[in-house]
Amino acid sequence: MFRERRVGSRRVALVAGAVLVLTGATGAFFAVPALAITPAQQAANTSPKVAGTPCTSAAAACVDVRKKQAWLIKGGKVVRGPVAIATGGKGEDTPTGDVFRVYRKDKNHTSSEFPLKNGQPAPMPDSVFFEDGGIAFHSGAPSRASAGCVHLGPADALAFFNFLQIGDHVQVKDGPVAAPDPTVSTGNNGTGNNSDDNNSSDNNSDDNSGHDDGGHHSDHNDDDD
């Protein structure tokens, strides 16, 4: 029997039962809980890297926080990306990890935590929630830091919303070296676009999320998870 427990940005399973430890000094036995890697973490650790990204094929979506890029992945290949993104600003960093999971989608989500100047809840179109605290992909200005979410241009946000399904895994990396992309020359750091029509990011779009501060968390606290 397994029970999930969060350790930092990773989920590990607490195995029901205990490990007996012998202390040499007293000869006494005492029980300590045994931690085991979850199947999701095992898949993230052992799956092959996806060319042109810092993520493995276990992920359906990949984020590189340092390079401000994201990808959609299917069958170990990029199907969209790299696309321009914005992540959390100073003190509101987007959490990193290998086993985030899509747990909620809301086409017309609004957030009361960061209201508009008129006091109305701020729109967060095409929200795909993948981490505790309301961290989500959604439409917003890729040129402006968020309060932890991942801003995508409108076309990219729609693509992520349509592609990602409940239970899909998301990997958020803080700038590891990308696997080499065989479709581009070396020296391009493997971040070339190897999708068919990909990289349709609206990098010059205005912030259509309506956030006057450019950042947001959802007021959702993962009650649905």
Could you please say which CATH topology of the largest domain applies here? Answer: L,D-transpeptidase catalytic domain-like
Global morphology: globular
CA radius of gyration is 20 Å
SSE series = EEEHEEEEEEEEHE
Number of strands: 12
Unreliable stretches: 1-26, 185-225
The end-to-end span amounts to 20 Å
The averaged pLDDT comes out at 74
Structural class: mainly beta
The CATH homologous superfamily of the largest domain is called L,D-transpeptidase catalytic domain-like
What is the domain total for the residues? 2
**Percent of sequence in beta strands:** 35-45%
How many helix segments?
Answer: 2
CATH architectural category of the largest domain: Beta Barrel
Question: Given this structure, which CATH class of the largest domain is correct?
Answer: Mainly Beta
Question: Can you offer a commentary on this structure?
Answer:
The chain has 225 residues and is mainly beta. The chain has 2 domains: 2-39, no CATH class; 47-225, L,D-transpeptidase catalytic domain-like (Beta Barrel), CATH 2.40.440. It has 2 helices and 12 strands. It has helices spanning 39-46, 154-163, and strands at residues 2-7, 10-22, 29-37, 61-64, 69-74, 77-86, 97-101, 104-111, 122-131, 135-139, 150-152, 169-173. A 9-stranded mixed sheet has the order 7-12-4-5-6-11-10-9-8. The protein has a 3-stranded antiparallel sheet with strand order 1-2-3. The longest helix is centred in the C-terminal third of the chain and has 10 residues, at 154-163.
